[in-house]
Amino acid sequence: MKNKIWLLVSFVLILLIVAPFFGIIPIDLQGILKANPNSFIFWHLRIPRTILGFTAGAILALSGLICQNLFKNSLATPDLLGISSGAAAGAVVALKFNLNLSFLGVRGVYICSYFGALSAVLFVFFIARAVKNSSLYTYLMTGVAINFFYSSVIVFFQYIFDYSDTFSLLRWLMGGISVAGYGEFIFLLVLLILFLVLVFVFKKEFLLVSAGEEFAQSRGLNVANFRIRSFIALSFFVGGVVSVCGPIGFIALVVPHLSRSWGESHYNATVAFTFLLGGGLLVLADFLARTLIPPVDIPVGIVTSLLGAPFFLLLLIVQLKKNN
After folding, report:
1. What number is the average pLDDT over the span 143-147?
2. Separation between Cα atoms, residue 171 and residue 289, nearest integer Å
């Protein structure tokens, strides 16, 4: 297992070093050491974009791992539970009304994105409590309904935008990590550190839940309340990624599934694989987005969907066969 981790660490490090040199404008090693436009592109655009991609991918992958852990189902993700679409709808509202003001240094777009994600979570749990059914089916079906609702909200605001704003919004909804400077990276890095702290502080609780709801309750854990607190925290982290990068799909679905198989059910190893593979996969997807059809810079969300959709169908087929 240690060999796998070191191999993945080596791959990710090589990817982080190599990726910034490629794009619409190829950059060589000599070009980054001189005061010229290529140097500016490398240090202020490519490097921030690469490390931001790693950070965002790691957060999304860890959020998927937590979702699947809480429900003991490899299909449970923030996307299917409506968290991502709620966050996207909140961000769209902020963009529409130019809510650029910040509170305690936090941008208005993130605040709206967080409350959008939180509203989706609360609605899911409200429905589950109202029908007195907390099964995965209830959560997923409610999440699908919320996805449709918030998608309609996004389309409504897209319709009332003027033409130029509509194009910008459409580009943002495809997901992307095009940034200038290191501000967004620092913001997501703080969220990632907090996320990792919570993942290890509540390690015992997550292990109990993964062992089964009845077993966890027999050990004194209130599973329903722990799920609510966990998803409120997930809203905090997923909302941050969506507010910066837009909605990026399938990272939260694909990565945890691979990490569990590589981690051999060891909690720490699975978290490490998820962290590394999630960040590395999004950096790789962004690298492909910049280099597949030059000079076109494809939105990274399109690339992750093209890679993730077939994997999701395969996973769904396997799940259905197991149920039969």
Report:
1. 88
2. 14
State pTM to two decimals.
Answer: 0.93
Rounded to the nearest 5°, which phi and psi values hold at 106?
Answer: -100, 130
CA distance 275 to 58: 5
Domains and CATH numbers, the chain: 2-323 (1.10.3470.10)
- For residues 189 and 55, is the Cβ–Cβ distance under 8 A? yes
| Residue 100's pLDDT band (cuts 50, 70, 90) | low
The distance of Cα 308 from the centroid of its chain, to the nearest Å, equals 13
Asked if 304 contacts 248 with a C-beta cutoff of 8 angstroms, the reply is: yes
Residues 6 or more apart whose CB falls under 8 angstroms from that of 56 comprise 177, 188, 241, 244, 245, 248, 279, 282
Other CB atoms within a 10 A radius of the CB of residue 20 amount to 21
Q: Report the range of poorest mean pLDDT among 93-97, 132-136, 224-228, 268-272.
A: 132-136
8 A C-beta contact, residue 302 and residue 288: no
The gap from C-alpha 231 to its chain's centroid, in whole angstroms, comes to 14
Q: Is 33 exposed, middle or buried (0-12, 13-18, 19+ CB in 10 A)?
A: exposed
Report the Cα–Cα distance between both ends of the chain, in Å, rounded.
33
pLDDT digits (tens, 9 = 90+) for 16-72: 999 999 888 878 777 787 778 888 888 999 999 999 999 999 999 999 999 988 888
pLDDT for 177-232, tens place per residue?
888 789 899 999 999 999 999 999 999 999 998 888 888 888 888 888 898 899 89
C-alpha to C-alpha distance for 234 and 67, rounded to whole angstroms? 9
Other C-beta atoms closer than 10 Å to the C-beta of 146 total 23
